[in-house]
Write a structure and sequence with these properties.
By secondary structure, this protein is of the alpha/beta class. It contains eight helices and six strands. The radius of gyration is 26 Å and the shape is globular.
């Protein structure tokens, strides 16, 4: 029996039709890859803005533990990085610089270890951000990041969202909320303020790695859109709550 007859002409022709060939896989949209950012934002100024009101006992311990690992990781990657630490939630003043931005990392870490809690109960977070932007020796060409560390919302009367939006720096929250509850009231409050990111304040090196990654993400955004900071210039912010 001839081969074609045995196979069946109709079946053979169907097998040779183009539509019988396997379709190529659907082309997926490309995930944008950010350029290498170590080169692009080596000039990095990072300020820890720590709430030192009386309720921050565990949170301050977490900051001390996180800072050592975080500074080590970031300074190894961004060799021109500088770090500083300031506090708020004080009884008689809105803001106090503990250590200005510096590349003297041992001195900075000693300063962080020596921070004490106070009896303060007013946490003017927005005013503290304004003070930090005005008082610290930020470099004009540096990527500016403020890590706001607290267990409370800003005080009533502060327009925190406007302060964050107008700030010429990336404001990232390290907040003492329940990480198992996505509806946590404090988490939802800080998300509404327009921070670049909000992370739970926990102990251990895991937070240090998360915080370090947030710096990398900020640098990646800079590499992608060409902007060092959300706005272009370091503006002077008027003091509204600083005098008690």
């Amino acid at each position: 029996m001839p081969f074609f007859k045995a196979l069946g002409c109709a079946a053979l022709l169907a097998a040779l039709e183009p539509h019988s060939l396997p379709s190529p896989p659907a082309q997926q949209p490309e995930t944008p890859s950010y350029p290498t950012h170590k080169r692009d934002c080596n000039q990095l100024d990072v300020m820890f803005l720590q709430d030192v009101s009386a309720s921050m006992i565990e949170e301050l311990a977490a900051t001390r533990q996180t800072a050592v690992t975080f500074v080590r990781e970031i300074s190894a990657k961004y060799t021109a990085a500088r770090f500083g630490i300031s506090v708020y939630g004080l009884p008689n003043q809105a803001y106090q610089s503990v250590h200005h931005l510096t590349s003297d990392y041992p001195s900075l870490l000693r300063a962080i270890q020596n921070i004490k809690l106070t009896s303060g109960s007013n946490e003017y977070a927005g005013e503290a951000v304004r003070y930090a932007l005005r008082e610290e020796p930020w470099r004009a060409d540096a990527l500016k990041i403020i890590f706001l560390i607290t267990d409370e919302p800003a005080e009533e009367g502060e327009n925190m969202k406007t302060i964050v939006t107008d700030a010429p720096a990336n404001i990232i929250g390290i907040i003492s909320y329940d990480p198992t509850n996505p509806n946590d009231t404090l988490l939802q409050y800080w998300k509404r303020q327009g921070l670049q990111a909000v992370y739970p304040l926990i102990t251990g090196t895991s937070l240090a790695h998360i915080v370090a990654k947030s710096v990398d993400d900020a640098c990646a955004r800079y590499s992608h859109d060409g902007k060092l900071n959300p706005t272009n210039s370091l503006s002077f912010f008027p003091v509204t709550f600083g005098n008690f």
